Amino acid sequence: MLTDLAAWHALEAHKKEMEETSIKSLFEIDPKRFKSFHIRTDGLLFDYSKHRASLKTIELLCNLAKECGLEKRRQDMLDGKEINESEQRAVLHMALRGSTDPNLVVDGENIAEFVGGVQAQIKRISEEIRNNPKITDVVNIGIGGSDLGPRMCYKALIPLGEGPNLHFISNIDGRSLEKRLQPLNPENTLLIVASKTFTTMETLGNATDAREWLLTKLKEEDLHDHIVAVTNNVEKAMSFGVDEQHILPLRDWIGGRYSVWGAVGLAIAVAFGYEVFEELLKGARLADEHFMSAPFEKNIPVLMAMLGIWYRNFWDYPAHAILPYSHDFRDFPRFLQQMDMESNGKSVGLNGERLPYATGPIIFGEAGTNAQHAFMQLLHQSEQIIPSDFLISANAYHDLPDHHTHLISNALAQSKALMEGQSHEDDLQRNFPGNRPSSTFMMRYPDAQRLGMLIAFYEHKVFTQGVVWGINSFDQWGVELGKTIAKDLYVTMNQEGLKDGGDSSTSGLMNAFSTHCEHAA
Ligand code: F6P
Which pTM value belongs to this model? Predict the structure, then answer.
C-alpha cells in the first residue's frame, strides 16, 4: 500500500517542516535557485523553481517514485506488456513515434511494421488530399480522443498551415454540424470519420448526416473520394460505405486519448503536410528518450508528476491549472483535461480495492491573458490553492513583437504574484497570501517539435502519477454508464404517451420535454 511506504512516511514528516517555509523564502535562502531548479532540453526549458519544494523534497519525491516501481512499469510499457490490465491491452503510443524496439511483436504483429505501414498511408492519403485542387475543406468527425488531439494541434500550428481548411465536428448538437457544413460545398469537401470503435453515437450520428449532405451534390459512386475513415473496426467502416483503400487502421494498444500520433493525426498531416506531422512525432520521441533515460531528479515528466502528487496527497490541493500564454495553444487545457482526468480520475486501485488517498486533480485552464480576466482571482486569493503550469514561447509567429512582450510579461507577472503575494495586513481584502506554486515551460518556438515534446511530457506525467497511485490510467469505465442510460432514455423518449424515466425527476423532465419540444413523440 502506497501510504505504508517508507518514502511516503518521510514525505509526511517533511511536509510538516515545509509548512514553515514559503516559496519566497526558498529564493532568499538560495538566490540562485533557478539554476538548480530548471532543465533545458531540445529547445524547451522547464522551470520548477516556484514550488514549495527544496532539494530534499525532490529527493524524497523521487524516492517515492522509485519505491513505487516506476522504472519497471516504465519499461513494461515500452516492452508492450499488458499494463492496461482491466482490458488486457498493451499501451504503445510510444511505438507510434518510433520509440519502441523495432522487433516488438504484440498479438502476433510486428509493431514497427504496422506503424511504418500506417505512416506510409498517412503520407499517401494526406498528399492525395493536399494535391487534389477540388478539395478545399476537410471535416474531421470524431469525439474525445478522436477529436481533441488533432483539433488542438491544428489550432496550435495554424501559422504553419497552407493546406485545405480544416473543420471539426464532435458534439451531437445539430447546431455544430449545421454551422460547419452550411458554408461548405460537398463537391469540395472531404470527411475524415475518426472513431476507434466506430460505434460512438455522436460520431456515427454526425457522420451519417454529413454523408447525406455529401449526397445532396455527389453521386453514391463518388463518395469514396470524399470519405476517409480512421478506425479499429474496418468492417463497420466499410459497411458505412468507406472504400477499403481509405481506411486507416488503429489497434487495441492505442488508447483514444493517446492516439494523435497515429492515424488519428491524419488531419494534422492534411493541414500542414506530412513533414510537419513527422516533426510532431520527432518531438515526442525526444521526450520519450528523456523520460526513459534522465535520472528522476532531472526528469521533466517525473518531476511534473511527483510535484503533482506532493500537492494532491500531502497538501490536499484539489485542482491544477493549465495556462498557455498563446492564442494558438488555447485548446491545450481542454486536450489535457481528457488526457489527465479520463486517465487518472479513479478511486479504485489495480487490486480492485478502494483507495484511501486522492488521485487525479481537476484540470482546467484557459489561454492567458484571458484567464487573468476570468478565474485568476480565485488562484490569487481563494482559500483553495491551485498549482499552475504556465506555457510560454520565446518567439511568436506574428509581426507584433510588442504584443508578445506584453503577453510574456503578464505570464511572468502572474507566476511571480502567485508566489510572492503582497502583504496588506490593514486591509485583508487587498492581501495576497502568495506561496502559490507554479511551473513554467518556455518553448524556443511554438513549433511542431516543441508541441510534440510537450504533449508527450504530459502523457508521461499522467502515466507516472498513475503508477504511484496504483491505478490503471488506460481504461475509462466511468464514461460507460452515462452512455448506456442515454441509449435507454432515447428509446423511451421516442415512445408515445407518458414517459417513465425510473425516477420522478427524470420522468418529470422527459414529460416536460415531450410537451414543449415541437418534434417530440
Ligand atoms: O469518452 C469516452 C471515449 O471512449 C474516449 O475514451 C474516446 O476517446 C472517445 O470515447 C471516442 O471513442 P471512439 O474513438 O471509439 O469513437
Answer: 0.97
